[in-house]
Design brief:
The chain is mainly β and 239 residues long. The protein has one helix and 17 strands. A five-stranded antiparallel beta sheet has the order 13-14-15-16-17, with no helix packed on it. It is globular.
Amino acid sequence: MNVVPKTIGGILHNLNKNASDWGWPSLLAYGCQTSVVVVDTKTVQIIQTLEKHKSHVTRVKWARENYHHTIEAPYTLRLASADNSGHIIVWDVSEASERSSFSEGNKPVLEMEWLSTQDASHDLLVALHPPYSVILWNVATGTKLWKKTFTDNILSMTFDPFEPTNLTLLGNDCILFVNDFSIAKAPSSNGRKFYITCPSSISSSSGSNSASTGEKKNGGKPKGALRRVRLLVGDSKPK
């Protein structure tokens, strides 16, 4: 490993709060101001500091390692990091070098996921770009393979670990389920929409007393609160 002169990590910025990820073998990467710090958790020592970002680091994500590799085609420690200005950098952590960099606009990247359930390519990274775009990147070349723009603002995303064609997106007041994710082309629809709603609170005095009693018995939480949360399917928000 080519260990470069390290920056001593200091106090983190509030924008670094979601920038941490465990990798292989027992390595932890996290954002510290505008740097990415890699720590060996077995010795609790900083082994690498990656510095190319000009804005605060907001996301880091290790590439997958559970694929076939040989001496001729070895596995390399790759890490993707994104900053508050929307810039994504893919690193060779062992060499402390930048392998590629790319961006889409100047807003912070909300999520990043390496596609780990297919063997067609180990260079595919899905990124959530605000306010409502999901982009599939080829990190080897820094090129955009496709871009899907949704009609709702998207805050977060996650893949189904058992079915790679399923993608779930979290909006401001709804959940979108996409079931046709593919590396070949962008999803054709905007997904099946579920609105998160709560029935109106009970206005009668007896109902209020009952709710109050329930709170006391449940440590301050209304009894059956989870039962009052509903998911409703529809294209428009229920009134």
